[in-house]
C-alpha cells in the first residue's frame, strides 16, 4: 500500500492542484490529509490562490481515497461542505504490521505523545516543518506543509511505501527519508 501525505493546505487551490498532480504521478493508494485543509487561520498569511470553497469541491472529487483528520484551523462547519469525514482528532491505520497514529499535531505530538507501542508511527502536520526520525521507541514523521512551509523549508509532501517514508519537494526532490 502506498500512502500520500499532505498537511496544511490552508485553502490554497494552487498548492492543492499541485499536490493532486503529484498524487496521480506517484500512483498512491490513498490521500492522507493531516488537517488544516480549508482555512488559513489567524496566524498565517493568505496563501496563493486562497479559495476554500473550490478546495473543498476539488477534495470531494477524491473522497473515496481520502483519510483525514481535523486540524486546529478546521471547524465543524467545514464538514458541511466536504464529503469525507475529517472531524476526528486522530485516526489509526494498520500498515505493514504497525500502527500509524495520524493526527494534526496540535494535540498529539512529540511533547504530548499518545500511547503507542514500540516501532509504531506518529504522523502529524501542524508545525509546517518536515520531520523523519526515530524518537524513543517510535517513529515521528511530519510531511511539512504543502502550502506554507516554515523555517526556510520548501513546500513538501510525504510518501509511505514498503516501510520507507520519504519527504519530497513539489518537483520530487528528496528532502528527508527514514526506513521504518
Can you characterise this structure?
- The protein is of the alpha/beta class and 180 residues long.
- The chain has a six-stranded mixed sheet with strand order 3-2-1-9-10-11, with helices on one face.
- The mean pLDDT is 96.
- The protein is built from two helices and eleven strands.
- It has a domain at 2-89 and 143-179: Purple Acid Phosphatase, chain A, domain 2.
- A hairpin with a 2-residue loop joins strand 9 (156-161) and strand 10 (164-169).
Percent range for β-strand residues: 25-35%
Give the overall shape, derived from the CA principal axes.
Answer: globular
> How do the strands of the widest beta sheet line up side by side?
3-2-1-9-10-11
Based on the structure given, which CATH architecture of the domain at 2-89 and 143-179 is correct? 4-Layer Sandwich
Number of helices: 2
Q: Describe the oligomeric state of these chains in a short phrase.
A: single chain
Following the backbone from N to C, one meets helices and strands in this order, namely EHEHEEEEEEEEE
Number of strands: 11
Mean pLDDT across residues: 96
Low-confidence stretches: none
Cα separation of the termini: 14 Å
- Using the CA coordinates, give the radius of gyration: 15 Å
Estimated structural class = alpha/beta
Tell me, what is the CATH class of the domain at 2-89 and 143-179? Alpha Beta
Largest sheet: 6 strands, mixed
CATH superfamily of the domain at 2-89 and 143-179, called what? Answer: Metallo-dependent phosphatases
Amino acid at each position: 500500500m502506498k500512502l500520500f501525505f499532505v498537511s496544511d493546505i490552508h485553502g490554497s487551490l494552487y498548492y492543492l492542484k499541485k499536490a493532486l498532480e503529484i498524487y496521480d504521478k506517484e500512483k498512491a493508494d490513498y490521500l492522507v490529509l493531516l488537517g488544516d485543509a480549508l482555512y488559513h487561520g489567524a496566524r498565517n498569511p493568505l496563501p496563493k490562490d486562497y479559495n476554500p470553497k473550490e478546495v473543498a469541491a476539488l477534495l470531494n472529487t477524491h473522497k473515496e481515497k481520502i483519510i483525514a483528520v481535523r486540524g486546529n484551523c478546521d471547524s465543524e462547519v467545514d464538514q458541511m461542505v466536504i464529503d469525507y469525514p475529517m472531524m476526528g482528532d486522530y485516526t489509526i491505520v494498520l500498515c505493514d504490521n504497525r500502527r500509524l497514529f495520524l493526527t494534526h499535531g496540535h494535540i498529539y505530538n512529540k511533547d504530548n505523545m499518545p500511547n503507542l507501542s514500540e516501532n509504531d508511527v506518529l504522523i502529524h502536520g501542524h508545525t509546517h516543518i518536515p520531520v523523519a526520525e526515530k524518537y524513543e521507541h517510535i517513529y515521528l514523521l511530519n510531511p511539512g506543509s504543502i502550502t506554507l512551509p516554515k523555517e526556510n523549508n520548501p513546500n513538501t509532501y510525504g510518501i509511505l511505501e514498503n516501510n520507507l517514508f520519504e519527504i519530497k519537494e513539489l518537483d520530487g526532490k528528496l528532502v528527508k527519508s527514514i526506513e521504518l
